[in-house]
Amino acid sequence: MITRLRRSSRPERSRLGVRDLLSECAAGVLQRPARSALTALGTVLGVGTFVAVLGLTATTSSQIDSRFNELTATEVTVEDTGGDQPEFLDNAFPADADSRIGALNGVRAAGVYWPVRLGPEELVAAAPPGVGDDGERTEVVAASPGVIAAAGPALEQGRAFDAYHDRRGENVAVIGSGLAARLGVTTLETGPAVFVGNQAFTVIGIIEDVERKADLLLSVVVPRTTAERIWGGPDSGERAKMLISTDLGAARQIASEAALALDPAHPEYFKVIPPPDPRSLRGSVTSDLNELFMLLAGICLVIGAVGIANTTLVAVLERTGEIGLRRALGARGRHITLQFLAESGALGALGGLIGTSLGTVTVVVMAVVRDWTPVIHPATVLAAPAIGLVTGVLAGLYPAWRASRIQPAEALRR
């Protein structure tokens, strides 16, 4: 009987059931709705940025894929190497190189070009030497009409020179809009000219943008026959090249045929550069974008976690009396820990759900505005709320531990 009495008189240790934990968690969150909303805001921003960044990365990567497929997969470059003894052959390209390559099936445009070697006194200016400014050192490119067509220009004004200008060796030029602005060429209605040294060239076209060979925008492009008449042809120091634009899917076939089409007797005079493999190219670019944006998303999540930890720690300090009362009524330290972890985890999960929704909407809106196809991986949407939950729990570890260390007597005296 004594033994039974001792056992029955021993106080029963307190317990915290799952239902009680959830109710306490809900009460702690709902009692201070404004603070809870601000606490969850950090996770909303972090997870929302995480989802938006990954979604926009996937979306832009798909656009980059198509861009690379359309441009790099349709460009072939041919370099004149001159064979084993290039010093004895300044220009291996035949006079009709454009038409020879243009006859291949799948070629859209092709042209030969080379940088003109200018003298130290031959500067580019909008007026003859000695009149106005001194001019500037600008590259002059000799090109056949096919080069500009293969570059895919968007003309701001005028037109590009054609076979007629090239055949007659006309003193005409096409320049980029940036160079035109520096030279003060604003309109073609007055027939403006640019001077390369003492040579005047009538500007017949201003290029706003090009799809390929962007350095043309910073150069004075003249017909190759005109350049040959004034400065001579290419030499062993500045050898000629050919730019070829092809139909999608035909570039590698054209690359295998170009050298033989240019000179069946000496195809070794040419080095043909086919387009890079689109899969490896876009894979490397996509990998770089993913690494960059994942770093940004991680930083946002860290900021959100710091916000939750700070707010939860302040809540612990403000609720010291409540914690002491609970401890005095029998709550154990781990019960207090679980309570605050549940509150921070709930706020993190709620912020994760809202952030996932906002991030998804951001990706869709951006894709619609840019006329893209939105791409969001399902794993991102499924993992984002869980990331918010984990972020909230991790952020609440230290405040919950601090709360569990509060002694009842000390807390009640405050």
UniProtKB/TrEMBL annotation:
Keywords: Cell membrane, Membrane, Transmembrane, Transmembrane helix. The chain crosses the membrane at residues 37-58, 292-317, 338-369, 375-398. Its main location: membrane. Residues 295-408 form the ABC3 transporter permease C-terminal domain. It is a multi-pass membrane protein. The keyword Cytoplasm does not apply. Residues 36-253 form the MacB-like periplasmic core domain. It is found in: Cell membrane. Pfam families: FtsX, MacB_PCD. The keyword DNA-binding does not apply. Belongs to the ABC-4 integral membrane protein family. This is ABC transporter. It comes from Streptomyces griseorubens.
